[in-house]
């Protein structure tokens, strides 16, 4: 991408341009709580807390400024979407820790799907409810979700990646450490972001 955007500049010209663009990017964007989406080319983002996402920051910040100048119609700010999706993720964490089937299920779309590790998928809201009823019947959660990225990809869809860690008490097994990585697909329904697809897998090492 960098070569395609920069063209045939000399090293000196490129260095001067990159410094100017980097400074402009920091001044113009990094103080804002925002995410930029560049359609059909690349994605560049900050989290809701304006945490700078790495790697590739140098190449992508160059692309953002240039595309914003040349194709402003391709750039949309979606900071409000990120805030709303982050709030849903925090609500999901609370639903797990409170063992609340209702609070978990209400976060899903009607055609939502849960894809647990070592299990068939639970397809549709009725089966999503059954999934959480079975989870909470045998597992007590005490976990914290760490949001790694939230990435709206269109006005109606977004994905988020998280890590969670804490403890669980499993019926018949006792207390143990819990650690997972999760991927969420979100869909905007009636102006609200809902979980459309959810899958997770453990990051704990396999038992010896």
Structure in words:
This protein has 208 residues and is of the alpha+beta class. Helix content is 36%, strand content 36%. The protein contains 6 helices and 9 strands, in the order H-H-E-E-H-E-H-H-E-E-H-E-E-E-E. The chain has helices at residues 2-6, 11-28, 57-70, 79-97, 101-105, 125-138; strands spanning 36-38, 42-44, 75-77, 108-115, 122-123, 139-152, 157-170, 174-189, 192-202. It has a 6-stranded mixed β-sheet, with helices on one face. It has a 3-stranded antiparallel β-sheet with strand order 2-1-3, covered by helices on one side. Strand 4 and strand 5 (122-123) form a beta hairpin. Helix 2 (11-28) packs across helix 3 (57-70).
The gross shape turns out to be: globular
The total beta strand count reads 9
Mean pLDDT: 76
Radius of gyration of CA atoms, rounded to a whole number: 21 Å
Structural class, from helix and strand content? alpha+beta
- The ordered string of helix (H) and strand (E) elements is HHEEHEHHEEHEEEE
- Helical fraction equals 25-40%
Number of helices: 6
Tags for this model:
single chain; 208 residues; alpha+beta; three-stranded antiparallel sheet
